[in-house]
Specification:
This protein is α+β, with helices and mostly antiparallel strands. The protein contains 6 helices and 18 strands. It folds into 2 domains: about 1-120 and about 250-265, Diaminopimelate Epimerase, Chain A, domain 1 (Roll); about 120-235, Roll (Diaminopimelate Epimerase, Chain A, domain 1).
Length: about 270
């Protein structure tokens, strides 16, 4: 079995920046154990699997060690792959997924905009637990559906963080967002997901579904520009639109090719951690 695969740098117009995601394009479903093996072999923060046999296109996302319920940068990368290679005449693509239903991607003048559900965060009171993991007491903390968010008093504190990934991996939540206001952008962030095999995610679209409603209320505006200040970094064009968030960015293709999968691999399972 041969599958088309693309590797695309999301939330950047330059190769070797942003967040790299693999996109596997299929015309029929494959076993999820094979999806997990492919994601582990790619060893990127996420690999997206898109079935284009019928619209809306079904999409799933896998980190190296587990499936995730939503991934912004791999959805942006998937839209880039489909717009450029399969549906050049389209400016709008609709994905569908199990947890969140339909997800819309539009392109406009080089940018791709994702329409995602908001993840309105609730107050989180255990600030000392976050302090023990990142070495800094947050000003405030909030909890989304699967992610914690810590708010710090300045951008430099976010840049200087040296988090304890083992302690973050013990959180009940999937991962930790750390964010602050910025002088150049509206807000900045870094995101840590050691539980899924990704200590620091370069640019995290889905985390902005948590941050956008928070910062919109703090800054008093619905349109914002954000930067994730990981080593690779990326810029996101953000908007709060009622109960949805619009997350826009550039993407650039690094490579495309084919992967060859034997059907005999479907019985394999990933080794468990010691």
């Amino acid at each position: 079995m041969k599958l088309k695969m693309f590797q695309i740098d999301a939330f950047t117009s330059k190769r070797f920046e942003g967040n790299p995601a693999a996109v596997v394009v299929m015309d029929a479903d494959i076993d999820e154990s094979v999806m997990q093996l492919i994601a582990a072999e790619n060893n990127l923060s996420e690999t997206a699997f898109v079935n284009i046999s019928s619209e809306p296109f079904h999409i799933r996302w896998f980190a190296p060690s587990a499936e995730v319920d939503l991934c912004g940068h791999a959805t942006l990368a998937s839209a880039k792959a489909l717009f450029d290679n399969y549906f050049q005449e389209k400016n709008e693509i609709v994905f569908t997924c199990k947890e969140h239903g339909k997800l819309l991607a539009k392109r406009d003048d080089g940018l791709i905009y994702l329409d995602f559900p908001t993840d309105n965060p609730a107050k989180y009171e255990r600030l000392e637990k976050i302090r023990d993991a990142i070495g800094v007491m947050p000003d405030a903390a909030y909890q989304g559906k699967t992610k914690l968010m810590a708010v710090l008093s300045g951008e430099q504190k976010v840049k200087d963080l040296e988090p304890n990934f083992e302690k973050i991996s013990r959180f009940d939540q999937m991962g930790l967002i750390v964010t602050a206001r910025s002088s150049e952008f509206d807000f900045v962030s870094r995101c840590f997901f050691p539980k899924t095999g990704v200590d620091e995610d370069p640019v995290t679209g889905s985390a902005h579904a948590v941050m956008i409603p928070y910062w919109a209320s703090q800054l008093g505006k619905n349109k914002m520009v954000a930067k994730q200040i990981s080593e690779r970094s990326g810029i996101l064009y953000c908007e709060l639109a009622d109960d949805r968030v619009i997350i826009g960015g550039y993407a650039t293709t690094f490579f495309h090719g084919e992967i060859i999968i034997s059907v005999s691999y479907t019985h394999l399972t990933l080794p468990t951690k010691a």
